[in-house]
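Example 3.2
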Amino acid sequence: QVQLVESGGGLVQAGGSLRLSCAASGSIFSINAMGWYRQAPGKQREWVASITSGVSTNYADSIKGRFTISRDNAKNTVYLQMNSLKPEDTAVYYCVSSDPLTEYDYWGQGTQVTVSS
């Protein structure tokens, strides 16, 4: 079964950068689509970015041009490079892995990102 662990969150000033990592266990990581979601207090969970088993990526309009999703299949890790951070980016960020065989989504526990103004 796939297990995901996010890391790299923290407190940063507006305009700063963070890189989130999501380490995945499981032998089928390389064929799973991966993504990042975020959820601010009192808000619904919002899709941020996704990447296929290859290198095709998609981004939410709210972060397009500032965030970059990437993956290193050899390390079973997906990343979210976040630049030019804004206070509205403050949220718990969750990693998700989608199994193409079962169509089941696996979720990490989340990592807190706080951007101060």
